[in-house]
Amino acid sequence: MGGPGRLVIRPPHGLGGELDRIHARLLRQLQAIERKLSRYRDDSVISLINQRAGSGTYTPIDDEVAGLLQLCHQLWLESDRAFDATAGVLRKAWRFGKDACAKPEELPQLMP
To answer: Residue 74: which of 85, 61, 59, 63 has the closest Cα?
Structure first.
């Protein structure tokens, strides 16, 4: 989902033969999460929600995504609104990593 990752598996003594099966299962799970939640994939649920935001078009979600959104809302409340899962769109204005500052005229169109 936009960043590197590395998974190190050290199976308990005697379970080394299971390593390939465990690795395959973990890889499938990570790929499923990526397909569903990555904002870098146009076909993910999160991207679909973002594309439809403000349009009035409902996006069906499953219990897993609903739980994640509920957690995000809870974190937003408990952090006194410092945590905001909806702020990612502002990266279009600030372009982090490129030393580019937002232009004031760019912000109003991104805020909805």
So the answer is: 85
User: How far apart, in whole angstroms, are the C-alpha atoms of residue 52 and residue 80?
Assistant: 26
- Give how far Cα 31 sits from Cα of 9, 15, 19, 73, Å: 17, 24, 18, 25
Return d(Cα 2, Cα 58) in angstroms, integer.
26
2-38: pLDDT as tens digits? 677 787 877 777 777 778 888 889 889 999 999 999 9
Please measure the distance between the N-terminal and C-terminal CA atoms of the chain and give it in whole angstroms: 24
Cβ pair 45, 65 in contact under 8 A: yes
Question: What would the two tokens of residue 56 be?
Answer: 């009035």
**Whether the predicted model's global pTM rises above the 0.90 cut:** no
- Joined together, the tokens standing for residue 4 give 């590197």
